[in-house]
Design goal:
186 residues, mainly alpha, 6 helices, 0% strand, transmembrane transporter activity, transmembrane, TRAP transporter small permease
C-alpha cells in the first residue's frame, strides 16, 4: 500500500505543478482583463470610441476557473479551513473514525457534484457566452474538473493515512512538494 501511495503522490506532484502553472496563467489573464476594463472605463473611452465589453465576462469566468483549479492544491497542502475543536479531543481511534467519516462524506459530495455538473454541462452544451462566444462546456466544466482532481487528492491522502505514512487531519503538513524545504514558499 505504501508503494501505491508513493506512486499516486508522484502523479499528484506533477498534477499540482501543472495546476500551479495554469493558475499563474489564469491570474495573469484575470489581472490583465480587469486592468483593461478599468483603462477602458476611465481612459480609453474619453479619447476614442473603442470598447472592450468582453473584459468583464473574461474576468468573471477566469475567477471561477481559478477557484476550481486551486481546489486540489489547497486540499493537498492542508490549507482548507477546518474546525479542530472535536478531533483534537479524540484519541487515535476516534480521530481515525472521524477522518474516515469526513472523507467518505467528501467523496459522496464530490460524486454528486460531478454527476450534476455533467448534467449541467449537457444541458448548456449549445450555450455560448454573450461577449466571448465561449462554448458552454468550457464555462460550466470548471466544477467537474476541480472536483475530480480533489477526489484524486482525497484518495491519495486516504491511502497515505491507511498505510501509516500520513496522520489523519495533518496530512497536508507532510504532503508538500518534494523539492520544497520546510519554511520555503512554493
Amino acid at each position: 500500500m505504501k508503494k501505491l501511495y508513493f506512486t499516486l503522490n508522484k502523479v499528484s506532484n506533477v498534477i499540482c505543478k501543472i495546476l500551479s502553472g495554469l493558475i499563474v496563467a489564469v491570474v495573469i489573464i484575470n489581472a490583465g482583463s480587469v486592468l483593461l476594463q478599468i483603462l477602458n472605463r476611465y481612459v480609453i473611452v474619453k479619447v476614442s470610441d473603442l470598447s472592450f465589453p468582453w473584459t468583464e465576462e473574461l474576468s468573471r469566468y477566469s475567477m471561477i476557473w481559478l477557484c476550481y483549479l486551486a481546489l486540489p492544491i489547497v486540499y493537498r497542502e492542508g490549507s482548507m479551513a477546518q474546525l479542530d475543536l472535536i478531533f483534537d479531543r479524540l484519541g487515535r481511534k476516534g480521530k481515525m473514525a472521524l477522518y474516515i467519516l469526513t472523507r467518505i462524506l467528501c467523496l459522496i459530495f464530490i460524486v454528486i457534484a460531478v454527476y450534476f455538473g455533467i448534467h449541467v454541462v449537457r444541458t448548456r452544451i449549445m450555450f455560448t457566452s454573450s461577449m466571448l462566444h465561449a462554448p458552454g462546456y468550457m464555462l460550466y466544466s470548471a466544477p467537474i474538473f476541480g472536483c475530480i482532481l480533489m477526489a484524486y487528492e482525497i484518495v491519495t491522502e486516504m491511502i497515505g493515512v491507511f498505510s501509516g505514512i500520513l496522520e489523519p487531519f495533518y496530512a497536508g503538513e507532510k504532503r508538500q512538494y518534494p523539492d520544497v524545504k520546510k519554511g520555503e514558499e512554493v
